[in-house]
Write the structure tokens for this entry.
Amino acid sequence: MSTIPQVAMLVDTSRSYGRDIVRGIRRYVAEHGPWSLYLESRDLKSSFPEWLKKWPGDGILARTVDPLLLRQLKATKLPVIEMRTTVLKHPFPYVGMDNQIVGQRVADHLMDRGFRRFACYLDNSELFFQQRCQSFVATLQSRGFECSVFEAGASPSRPLRWDQHQRQLADWLCSLEKPCAVFAANDQLGFWVLDAARRAGISVPEQVAVIGAENDKTLCETAWPPLSSVQLRGLNVGYTAAKLLDDWLHQKIQPAKVTLLQPGDIVVRQSSDIVAVEDPRMAKALHFIRQNAIADISVTDVAKQVALSRSALERRMKELIGRSPGEEISRQRFGHVERLLAQTDLTLDAIAERAGFKHPQYMAEAFRKRSGITPGEYRRQNRF
């Protein structure tokens, strides 16, 4: 190996996730380099660069979808880290998202929002889409809820006329009992769901709330209304893959066969920004808590807002969502702490102030008791 490692990045740059992976690799190199990096604009179906067949490089970071590309990567006999799929039975170490957690996180989020009717829109063409849907359904079933599953009639392997596909999707949406929350296994499906709902005259999010996965900003922000989605933390995938490759090249440490990383937060946009509780006073109470939890509100403040006694509020909220008003205030407040730890470099003092805690030490200790780890450990595990 040369003094400066030569590394090729065969990563699709046509979507936000791939571009985030490239940024994560670049961040690692900035901290631990220098490396000589090869990068070109690609999509998932781009071909193998012919010059790589005789390239005297040191390693490759790739996202592979084509069996031919897989064979060509193997033929280089170079260390390769794969960042897209385990389906092709490749011999390379794999780094990617834990898609079981994606489905679980969406289910928990929607149940926390008060939804009691659920549906999942699945593209069956990829294992990771299946894993997201299976985990979503299993999490709901563990809490006693059923879930309608609709399989996409169109995919790269099964093209279907656009108008025909949207009619089928609209018919399915119309058949769902409302209000209902729909998890789309990726943002493309979520985009299609929102279009079909608009065609069918279904109000989003009041009748149907929609959440996608991957947080592709082009799709999410072009959709109408804008699509909520799970952030997949491509930065962390790229950074971790680069570190594994670096250890492989310099220390001869063979990476684990599979390295799964936790997804990020759900980026809430208009398509799911609602509390689905059919009791209007409880819906108002939950909305008030969500908007004001970090302002150090009390249960008495919530009771006054909805013109109920404290005991009546406690009883009705516990019946509807399984949590007391005080527990919901704490959940919202600590959720804000988690977001600030993961997404900013603010000190604990600043985070405590922004999350409505008067004493940073109390916040840190309460956080440790709730999550089992300290705020610093949480930040290290979720920093991208």
